[in-house]
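hiii so um. not sure if this is the right channel but i have a protein structure encoded as tokens and i wanna go backwards to a sequence. like what aa goes where. can anyone help
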């Protein structure tokens, strides 16, 4: 009888062993929440100076185009793009053979007019002396006086023509007005050029560089000449240099953008005309309500009732919804009023992918996570 009940005893023992093991199943362990990475923005006080970033281009503070005042065949052009020169260096010359011949002709005409003037002056003196003695009539004296006046006019005209011809002869040489370098070359040797046709574009080394940009009409009143700003140069590794606003245009160019010129106070080594520049303009604004705070436009969230919210990141890196009132909306920023304070962080963008109460980590902080 005892042997008949042995299998039930074994089943009971096995069942007793299985129950403790079932209690150790991993399905009962808690799941760890993985924070979502978000891009954050630190709220700034709304009553200070706002910054705006614009693209600009470097140019020489002193630059000009060089040309001949006369026409002719370009005989020589001694410089090319990038070449440096000193003041009064000869940069180009015209074929001067024709101008030499014209100058000689004008000198001969001046000598001929001078000889005629001497003759007419002597004739007038004789006629005047004879008239005093009553040997000639007043009509003859008037004729002699008119001849002298004509000779004087012709002589003056011949002398002026000679001076112009000699001046044109000197204009066959194009000299450097200052020390600098060639930025563009617009003609080639043996080419026939017209008067005032651009031959070279040059920039000066003595007055440094400036940056040209343009600002929309909404920012013009927030800028003033003499104000200080910053300029960075992507081609030079992002190096930043101080700049002073020297010119603020009064006439818009296109799309109601006004030209702005900033002088580089300390141009960094390696800067060249034509380089791209990133301009950071500090906008002066009047005193405003301290409760109005600027935030990125992408930080705004609207619920089903079209009420505006932002997602604030608390000390435990959890999100909480804060209702705000939108005071003003710009192209990239909004001004809001609500239960916010400078120094607090909010989600800057991607608000549609996170929810209040969610655990987050800040972009650029903490360990990198890879999927």
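sure thing!! here u go:
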């Amino acid at each position: 009888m005892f042997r008949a009940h042995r299998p039930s005893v074994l089943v009971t023992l096995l069942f007793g062993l299985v129950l403790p093991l079932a209690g150790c199943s991993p399905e009962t362990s808690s799941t760890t929440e993985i924070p979502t990475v978000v891009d954050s923005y630190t709220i700034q006080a709304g009553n200070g100076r706002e910054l705006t970033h614009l693209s600009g281009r470097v140019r020489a503070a002193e630059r000009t185009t060089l040309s001949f005042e006369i026409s002719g065949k370009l005989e020589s052009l001694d410089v090319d793009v990038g070449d440096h020169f000193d003041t009064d260096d000869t940069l180009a010359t015209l074929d001067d053979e024709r101008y030499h011949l014209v100058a000689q002709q004008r000198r001969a005409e001046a000598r001929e007019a001078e000889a005629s003037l001497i003759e007419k002056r002597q004739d007038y003196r004789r006629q005047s002396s004879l008239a005093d003695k009553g040997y000639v009539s007043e009509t003859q004296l008037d004729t002699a006086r008119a001849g002298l006046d004509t000779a004087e006019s012709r002589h003056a005209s011949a002398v002026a023509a000679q001076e112009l011809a000699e001046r044109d002869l000197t204009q066959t040489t194009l000299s450097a007005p200052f020390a600098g370098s060639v930025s563009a070359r617009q003609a080639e040797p043996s080419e026939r050029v017209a008067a005032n046709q651009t031959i070279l574009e040059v920039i000066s080394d003595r007055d440094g560089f400036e940056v040209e940009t343009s600002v929309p009409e909404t920012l013009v009143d927030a800028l003033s000449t003499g104000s200080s700003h910053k300029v960075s140069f992507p081609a030079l590794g992002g190096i930043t240099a101080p700049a002073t606003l020297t010119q603020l245009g009064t006439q818009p160019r296109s799309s109601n953008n006004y030209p702005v010129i900033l002088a580089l106070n300390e141009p960094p080594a390696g800067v060249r005309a034509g380089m791209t520049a990133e301009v950071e303009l500090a906008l002066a604004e009047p005193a405003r309500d301290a409760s109005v705070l600027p935030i990125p436009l992408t930080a705004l969230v609207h619920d089903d009732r079209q009420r505006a919210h932002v997602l604030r990141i608390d000390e435990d890196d959890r999100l909480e919804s804060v209702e705000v009132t939108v005071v003003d909306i710009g192209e990239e920023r909004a001004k809001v009023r609500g239960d916010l304070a400078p120094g607090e962080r909010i989600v800057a963008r991607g608000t549609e992918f996170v929810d209040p109460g969610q655990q987050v980590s800040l972009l650029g902080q903490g360990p990198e996570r890879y999927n």
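oh and The helical segments are 6-22, 97-133, 138-170.
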